[in-house]
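Sample 3 of the quickstart, ligand NAP:
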Amino acid sequence: MVETTARTVGIIGVGEIATFLVQGLTRAAAAGRAMPALVLSPRGRERAAVIARETGATIAADNAEVVERGDLVIVATRPAQTLAAISGLPWREGQVLLSVVAGVQVEKLASAAAPATIVRSIPVTCSALGLSPTAMWPDEPRAHDLLARLGTVHPMPDEAAFEAACVLGAFYGWVYALVERATETTAAAGVPASDARAIVAGMVGGAAAMVRHRPEVSVEHMLAELATPGGVTRLGLDVLARHEALDAWDAAWRAVHDRLRGT
Ligand SMILES: NC(=O)c1ccc[n+]([C@@H]2O[C@H](COP(=O)([O-])OP(=O)(O)OC[C@H]3O[C@@H](n4cnc5c(N)ncnc54)[C@H](OP(=O)(O)O)[C@@H]3O)[C@@H](O)[C@H]2O)c1
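Result:
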């Protein structure tokens, strides 16, 4: 029978994103999903110790123990650290290596972690709230089941599509830059800072909700509904166009895509 749930999840690379992933798993467990047993790599022991205290996770003696114990092992190191972190470990047939690392291709991961099944994904920090829209490739039942506890899962048809979807992991960060700038400008004009922050966040969340909940309507049409001729939304869009603001976002998208593809 094909296993569809990982009972023991190892984590190699207990840094920022791993912490948010664990928070998401804990949240899903509070909502009734089974909590997998967690086995953490020992490097960065202080952070691992906090997670262990809060979740009952085990801190392994070394990365080899993480691989020995995990049905599924998440690797969440920085890209340049990844191949060294997963090489020479006792990977076995039927085990899943779930990478959340941007820009390290399946072929390289497979050569370092054979004969494990390799899966790539790009969950983001709102995994902690169960809201990550996570691209993955290839689709694999245990990895899919785990990622589904952290939000929506979007299996990609091939690695090229996955790499393009990975750019949106960086886009997620750029949204924060936009939120920060709009909040600061609004607060500087006299709106109490906490209100400015809440209103800006509500506008971004509200726009995202409308796009998600009206899938039959094009985003272009929704924008046309908002930007009536002579109105202030139209005025601002014209200013943004004069500053080539959207072209700049395209340029950022392409720069990240090139980096991820190693071009
Ligand atoms: N941050 C995000 O929101 C986000 C979102 C999606 C994907 N990612 C991906 O997640 C990866 C990690 O990002 P991050 O922001 O979480 O980085 P991070 O905070 O630097 O975490 C990486 C962790 O891996 C540890 N590490 C390095 N080599 C190791 C080894 N050989 N064995 C065990 N642990 C090792 C590091 O320890 P040291 O500090 O001692 O080196 C550090 O604790 C990146 O590749 C990124 O592409 C991040």
